[in-house]
Amino acid sequence: MAARRLPPATHRRARPGRERRGRPRSAAGAPVKRRHPIFRDHFTLFAVLAVIGLLAASLLAQGNAHFYAGKTFFQRQTIWIVVGGVVFFAATVIDLRLIERASYLYYGLVLALLVLTLVIGTSPTGEFKRWIKTGFFNIQASEFAKLAVIMALARYLHGQKERLPGEDEPRRGEYRARDLAKPFLIVMVPLLLILPQPDLGTSLMLLFVSVTMLLMEGVHRRATVTALLAVLLVVPVAWKVGLIQPYQQDRIWLWVDQDWDKVDEDTGKVVETRTTQVEQAVWAIGSGGLAGQGHHQGNKARLSKLPEIHTDFIAPMLAEERGFLGVTVLLFLFWGVVMWSLRTAQDSRSRYCRLVAIGIGSLIGWQVFINLGMVSGMLPVVGLPLPMLSYGGSSMIMLMASLGLLFNIAIKRGRL
């Protein structure tokens, strides 16, 4: 009896380099349950929880600012957090290649807004030009310039991989002084549009973040020294021509000489001393002790006089109520977000994503460092909010967009 032939196999072999479709299986053959990328990376999960914790602390802080100083920004901050959440989720699903290609476009739009701010901008006192008023809200273009510079600088450096034939990327230290002309312009153009608003804090942030990105990317020592000297030359020129406003100069003198008092030339009376600003914040921080005074138990007479308690000087209020332990928890959450950004940069497959992750992480890290140094008297007061905690719609939307982009890079391993 002839042996029965088996029918030929009907399934196709998988092409080389292409995995067979279907649910993955374990070594024993059992199907493996797919998990969302956020749960596969514990660092990313921790960072998301840290951001949620910081946003919750922001609402708590705004409620306290209303209690101590009558600053009624709790409801508006809630609205901005909701809007920021929508922006965050939108930034997580957009194709990274589209974001990379649109970097220069976004940079150009922000430059246009900065120019428009100098033309029709306003401020609560009417003395400065910092916000563009619309029918429903105010736009602070300088906040969006932070992310615009990060994206444009990353886009330019990403395109430089074609400079070395036969290599995927330039070697560390390959960039020299002549290679930094265009990156210098990318940073200086928005910076020179922001200084006259005036906004010294954001201008410094653009410098610190861009230098951090260049150093992490790999810049020749001579080029680094040249760039730093160029920045140092800009400072006295800006001081002399009036780009650094008189009140900003007074704040710097107050930091340099703690016993310096500003005297009115006409009346001879002291109009501003260190006590009026920084010492109030330092006393609030010191009175918090280890565990703080408790919820709504701070010195209302002192905190009500603290300037900008809902924005730049929100940290002293939190320190007085929550003490050293509460501030340590906040610093730990910020540390987790910054380390997550560096971890994301390390795992990124493309230079653009790596540089964007470094830029966002350095933006948050530098801003926390400068704000806390400012309110504790270790640095001069330059006007810089505490990320995610201080009140501000433009700041909140920019930060949530940045974190959404960072999350997008993290779950896709920085693949364009």
Word description of this protein:
The longest helix is centred in the last third of the chain and has 34 residues, at 314-347. The protein is mostly helical and 416 residues long. A two-stranded antiparallel ribbon has the order 1-2. Strands 3-4 form a two-stranded antiparallel sheet. It is globular, with a radius of gyration of 25 Å. It has helices spanning 37-40, 42-69, 74-93, 96-101, 103-120, 141-159, 181-194, 200-217, 221-241, 246-256, 278-287, 300-303, 314-347, 351-375, 393-411, and strands at 132-133, 138-139, 262-263, 270-272. It has one domain (38-256, 266-411).
What secondary-structure arrangement, pairings included, does this model have?
Layout: H1 37-40, H2 42-69, H3 74-93, H4 96-101, H5 103-120, E1 132-133, E2 138-139, H6 141-159, H7 181-194, H8 200-217, H9 221-241, H10 246-256, E3 262-263, E4 270-272, H11 278-287, H12 300-303, H13 314-347, H14 351-375, H15 393-411
Helix pairs in contact: 2-3, 2-13, 3-15, 5-6, 5-7, 6-7, 6-8, 6-14, 6-15, 7-8, 8-14, 11-13, 13-14, 14-15
